[in-house]
UniProtKB/TrEMBL annotation:
Keywords: Cytoplasm, Elongation factor, Protein biosynthesis. One of its GO terms (molecular function) is translation elongation factor activity. Its main location: cytoplasm. The gene is tsf. Belongs to the EF-Ts family. It is found in: Cytoplasm. NCBIfam families: tsf. This is Elongation factor Ts. The keyword tRNA-binding does not apply. The lineage of its organism: Bacteria, Pseudomonadati, Bacteroidota, Cytophagia, Cytophagales. SUPFAM superfamilies: Elongation factor Ts (EF-Ts), dimerisation domain, UBA-like.
Amino acid sequence: MAAITAADVNKLRTMTGAGMMDCKKALVEADGDFEAARDILRKHGQKIADKRADNETSEGLVLVNVSEDGTKGKLVALACETESVAKVANFRELAQQILDTAIRIDAGTKEDILAAKASDGLTVQEHVTDLMGKIGEKLEVTYATLTAEKVASYIHSDNKKAVLVGLKNVGSADAAAVGRDVAMQIVAMKPIAVDKDGVDASIAEREIEVGKEQARAEGKPEAMLEKIALGKLNKFYKDNTLLNQEFVKDNSMTIAQLLDSKSKGMTVSDFKRVAIGA
């Protein structure tokens, strides 16, 4: 049995960032072999991940990046279980590493990022698992990317909600400024699509059926149910599709009218909204 010194424990702690007692236990189990001890710590992280797989992750941090030319946006959310963990330096550094990796490889999906290797040879997923072992909480990664004529972004003050919004037909308008206003609208009002054409047909059908049942319950004539339900559907579109929503900063105009007032024909091509715990 190899003698495990305080210097050995500190070395492993420096290498992995794990706690002193965890490092000592891993070195004892590995009989002083540092690489084997690192593997043991990593397996500990996987055990934590498996054990806490069903736990809710309602705290965390969102980060965004928009390319210098303003045509590409990337949004990363790293979620955890408690507010205290979200403030830990290692957690915030991992969130930044995930975003930096997304930018470096121009990731299309979360899986692309998690499979990518860092400079130490470990994958991003291994880094996530390692941190789970150190902090004892479930961590969850969410990723969104958007390409458009111009992309704007917004992170809410709680650092748990963020939006990327794509604009087209921008003309001479200040895309960053108007895009930020629209992104703030998306954070606050949670639209489900850009306009009614983006709403899934099954959702529209459900709203019509609900509208009919409500009208029927109110005693409306059967012959009027379809017309009443279509009116309710239009109200649904107004409330739940971005371009038709009233602008929260000035409810005298819709988002479509706001954009058109900044540059004739300007509109939203797409948006991505990510929220931790909501």
